[in-house]
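User: Run a structure prediction on this.
Assistant: Running it now.
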Amino acid sequence: MPDEDDIFGGGIHCPPFSFRPEFIPSNMKTWADIGMDHVQFNMVDDATLRAAQRDPEQYQEVIVRVAGYSAHFMDISSKTQDSILQRTV
């Protein structure tokens, strides 16, 4: 698993944006049209992630995508959790 500081301080770009689920098909077509070859989604709402930050023991099985790998939300740093929350609808 990559080091989180390498991911967020180095060459992997994780733009903080989110969009409504109904736009996923048109966005994916646009990304394919411009040659984007990698997209990853987290299908967890922000309320669940914020609850997991407040009460980690109750949310140990929540899994998120983090710059190319999957991780239990509670096992990643609060910095990375906050970055994921910035991109959550």
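The helical segments are 4-9, 24-33, 46-54, 78-86.
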